[in-house]
Each structure stands twice: as C-alpha cells, then as structure tokens.
Amino acid sequence: MTSSAPSPSRDAIVATAHESIARGSKSFAAASLLFDPRTRERAWLLYAWCRACDDIADGQDHGHDLRAVDDAPRRIAAMATLTEGALAGETIGVPAFDALRIVAGETGLPARFARDLIQGFRLDGEGWRPWSEDDLYRYCYHVAGVVGCMMAVIMGVAPDDEAVLDRACDLGMAFQLANIARDVDEDARGGRCYLPGAWLAEKGIPADAVAAPEHREAIADLARRLTDRAAAFEASARQGTRALSFRSAWAVLAAAAIYGAIGRKVARLGPRAWDARVTTSKADKLRFIARAAVEARGRGALPFVARDAGLWTRPR
Description:
Blueprint: H1 10-24, H2 26-32, H3 37-58, H4 72-87, H5 95-107, H6 111-125, H7 133-154, H8 162-182, H9 184-189, H10 197-203, H11 216-240, H12 246-269, H13 282-297
C-alpha cells in the first residue's frame, strides 16, 4: 500500500487540496478563508479526502455528473483500504489520501470518525434507503454529521469533548438535510431518494416517482419538513461556537448562514425549488460572512441554551 515514489511535500499536498475545494464547493471554499492559516490548510486537507471518497464512490469529478456505478462495493473497499493506510501513517501516493494522513497525524483525529464516513458510502453503495426519520438522521450522520465532528477536532476541540462534538455534528446534519431538500429532483434522476419511505407513503408517492410533476406540491411539503429539521440542528450547532476561537467561530457561523439560506430558499420556493439549482449569490455570501463576524465577536455574551433533549444525537 505504501508508495515507492517520493512523497510530495506537505505544501504540495495542501496546494492540491486547495484546488480540490475551489472546484468542489465554492461555499466551503469561501468559509475556509476565515480560518487561521493552519486551520485553513487542515480544512482543505480534510475536504480533499472527503471529496475524493465521494467521487470514488459515485464515479464523479468533484461532485459533478452523478451517475450509477456497477462496481460500488469494489470502489468502497479500495477507498477503505487506502483510508486505513493513511490513518496508520503510511504514505499512499494519492494526494487526497496523503492529505488525510497529514491532517490525522497533526490533529489526533480519531480513526472511528473516518470509518464512520466510509460507512456512509457503503450505505449508498448498497442502494440503502431510509424508511423512518431516524433512518434519515443516521444516514445524515454518516455522510455529514461525522464530518462536523472531524472539523471540530481540526479546529482544536478535544476528541473526547462529546458535548461540543455533538454541536459540531448538528451543523453537519443541518447541511445534509438542506442538501437533500435542494437536490430531491437531481437525486431522483440519479436513481436515489433520501426522503424517508414513511413520509412518501404518507403522501401516497411511490419512491420511483418522486420527480413526477404531479407530486411537486407534496414533495415541496416534505422538503419544508426537511428544512425545518435543518433549522433546528443549525440553531443547536450555533451554540457550539462558544467553544471555538474567534476565527473558527466566524467560519462556522458563515457556513451555517450560507447553507441555512439554501434551506430557507428551498422552503420559500415550494414546488418551484427544483426549476433551477438553488444557490447563494456572491453578494449574499459576502453579507453572511460580514454578519458572521459580528455574531462571532458577540457569541460569548449570548445566554447559553442547553442542547434540546429531543434532538437526534449521534451514536457514540
């Protein structure tokens, strides 16, 4: 597994990771610039590994052109093997996996988090679909909530600070729920549906007819349900920024605002939410970033709100 080729320098791997985030996510790329330099680099490194795993699993290029693959188990097994090597400190010779090696070595990132993310890809590779709302949350944890936990460690949160990690997970959950609401139509065209089967049954919608025009109104109702849940997780996550440095809190609050706006726009558009991909403009991003700076400076003065006991909690 260890490459016999000369290992690229850390700077070279960071540069490749920066290119990856610039191509794969303008929103995360913008928010990452608010971190201090070392945290920013580590965020890019982690993103590069997550992005590469996603692309390997789906046969995509930086999240574009989703298509069905017929060898998902083989792809995911290979991804898991490379990941285990990186976590063991081996030089892999693949920039994205060497990025994980570097960031894990520098931060003490728990291996269980990386493995939990791989499990999310296995769920997709097996064609798994959620039936209950709890199923949906477990999926969201494996593909996004755990990324929030990893980002928290990169920002300096102790790997055993479960309370803060719960809040970080909440942010990933909010992001994923907003993504699912935004991408209902695109996912359906790719043969996927992340709306719980019980929700679809309640509306009388067959799982293979989610994108049908006659179901647009009902799907819009379910999308609003998703964005409402996303807003609850986002509100909880904001409390976690009290444990972060100013610059990390600034980045997190900016990202929360950007993705929160996507969810709110989907809800506002209703049945028209999938006529074109919902995004936030550059002007909106700048406005959210400016507002987040003010919120980050004043975060310690706000009253602490205990995490809602009824909010879904990640597995330990």
